[in-house]
Please model this.
Amino acid sequence: MGYLVLARKYRPRTFAELVGQEHVVRTLSNSIAEGRLAHAFLFVGPRGIGKTSTARILAKALNCPNGPKADFNPDDDICKEIEEGRSLDVLEIDGASNRGIDSIKELREGVPYAPARGKFKIYIIDEVHMLTNESFNALLKTLEEPPAHVKFIFATTEVQKLPATILSRCQRFDLRRISDPLICSHLRKIADAEKMKISDEALVLLARQAEGGLRDAESALEQLVSFAGKAITLDHVLEVFGLAGPIETRALASAVLAGDSTAALGKLHEFRARHRDPIRIAQDLARHLRNLLLLQIAPAEAEAELGKTEKQTLLSLGNPPDKAHLISLLEQLLESEHHLRLSLAREVALEILILRLCEMRERVSLETILKKLAVPGAETRAESAASRPALSPAPVTTPSELPRPSAAKTPFAKSSTPTATAASKETFLNDPAIKAAMKNFDARIVDR
Model:
């Protein structure tokens, strides 16, 4: 056999080897043990998290010798045939290249025939959302009442494109993105098996940039081996994938949180000199700020997701930033991501974004402004007025009884305390919160 890439060489072969999908493994194992097997299964989730692998493992469990059973031997002849794509009873179809109605009609013609060796004839359709509407309609009747020896297994990354009539006929399993600690642990096992030397910091960064996709992480590790050999460091990861290191990202975040635009731009220029990708810089910054927010709101969940080492690193940064400030920064980053991707000058667009983030420290929330604008003692006067007894209604005056206006005009009464009014205005304008608000909105006071 020729060379196998790491993603194929270390592909899970049994339920026990599936990473991060315990809820799916438990449900399928119990269904097999109790004989409560659906006729159609639908595996949903993003790329690289094990949908197709789970489908093949389920096919092995159904057709293994003395099966169905969840704890099958993957080295049995039938299981090896399924794994290598040689089984006559397990047909794996790519929905993207076999999406027409003719392919589905051909599939339906083979449904009535009994399996050759196993107990079931299993149809695995990957990327099932790519089928045409005519193909789905042709499949409906067979999917609703298939023969007892037929099982359908579907996998898709875009479940929203499936017709409701298909969804209602399947038992659905939502596979989850895999956490960074689990990806690190899996990559460490591969590195040990392949006799690689790779630092923990490099593994953490590899797992982080994979965004929950185990296959992406394995492919990235393979690329690093081609670049650096079997001794991989953090600098290799940063150079190959154009990532900002965790220390540099924390320094940029600290400058943004402090409103230090000079330090923030200096850090961006360092990134540019090292050819770091602007989009990845923004993504890493958003991820770091989000981790700081998560650590404040849900410390237990933060430790489970980030790991103890990362949690302690974040705690060692000092006093936690204001939650409202963090939320505002994250909102600005998310709103600007689309513009950053479409920009013709991404470096300049990122600089403008970072400057805006730095200025947000000086902004004052509407709640703070309203508190500052509140008249002292207003609540006390309102409560006092509410406690007074209701006044009797005023007598109605007829038009003939109304007093006629005199010829002389009555001048408007002037304020009896001009000095007090000026002092109150001066105090109001000198308030730091009001000054910051007026500066942000370029506002000015107009005397009337």
